[in-house]
Design a protein that fits this description.
Elements: E1 3-8, E2 12-18, E3 29-32, H1 39-53, E4 59-64, E5 68-69, E6 72-73, H2 88-96, E7 100-104, H3 105-113, E8 119-125, E9 129-135, E10 138-140, E11 149-151, E12 154-155, H4 156-160, H5 162-168, H6 170-188, E13 192-196, E14 211-213, H7 218-221, E15 237-238
Parallel strand pairs: 1-4, 4-7, 8-13, 13-14
Antiparallel strand pairs: 1-2, 2-3, 5-6, 7-15, 8-9, 9-10, 11-12
The protein binds beta-D-glucopyranose.
Length: about 240
């Protein structure tokens, strides 16, 4: 059984086919997110990805950069306002005649990297700042830390997102991230913090022992987790 796993991001759309263990059975394909990233344009991009990935998937998982309830998009800060209320699971199900599950992108990525023990926080550093919280492997869905206030009247995403790093440079971005980790430690008392996303490679300070950088590929590899019983990631289904 193959699963087509898709990661929709503010900058890129990525996909791969996965086997039952979550290993990629195809090339991992990446294209730019269309601009403007309205639903029709993104869906056309996903058609292209699906053709390029090939294989013979019998189901599909999608990580989406916003709050997702029952397959329906609630927020999409870094894409386009047209996404609000869009039933993505249903739209892809109708388009491709495959069972489809959709979850928040950080939730999907987090599911691929946590150990299942204790309080585990996953932060993704990309165009937006994603967050996922797990307690003994069970998720608190749709945690949106990125939009919580951080410093100087700005949110974590405004201070640490891709645009902020470009604006203030890597040194200050690193200083801000170090301060943010202290903040998250105080609030969540995590046993482990994982840092993922495309910008994690820019971290230049020594991380504490309970903080680890995880492979950005986990975004797509997490796709298999949406189909596992117990993860309760995807109350988001069109089957
Ligand atoms: C969104 C989150 C998402 C994150 C990373 C934020 O702007 O609100 O839902 O996980 O970006 O894509």
């Amino acid at each position: 059984m193959e699963t087509l796993s898709i990661d929709i991001g503010g900058s890129h759309l990525k996909a791969a086919c996965l086997d039952a263990e979550g290993r990629a059975t195809s090339a991992r394909v990446k294209i730019d997110t269309p601009n403007p990233a309205k639903p029709d344009a993104v869906l056309a991009g996903l058609d292209e990805l699906r053709r390029t990935v090939g294989g013979n998937p019998t189901r599909c998982s999608v990580g989406f950069p916003g709050v997702i309830r029952e397959g329906v998009v609630q927020t999409a800060v870094n894409l386009d306002p047209q996404w609000r209320g869009f039933d993505l699971a249903q739209a892809l199900h109708q388009r491709w005649s495959l069972p489809v599950r959709v979850a928040n992108d950080a939730d999907m990525q987090g599911a691929a990297v946590v150990s299942g023990k204790g309080v585990e926080l996953v932060i993704t550093l990309g165009t937006g700042i994603g967050s996922a919280l797990f307690v003994d492997g069970r998720i608190v869905p749709n945690l949106e830390l990125g939009h919580a206030p951080f410093r100087k009247g700005e949110t974590f995403e405004e201070q640490l997102g891709k645009a902020a790093r470009k604006e203030v440079g890597n040194l200050r971005w690193n200083q801000r991230l170090e301060a943010a980790i202290l903040h998250w430690r105080t609030v969540f008392n995590f046993d482990r913090l994982y840092l993922g996303g495309g910008m994690a490679k820019n971290i230049e300070f020594k991380l504490p022992l309970d903080v680890a950088v995880v492979d950005n590929e986990a975004g797509v590899l997490g796709g298999i987790k949406l189909w596992e019983e117990g993860a309760k990631l995807a109350r988001a289904t069109a089957e």
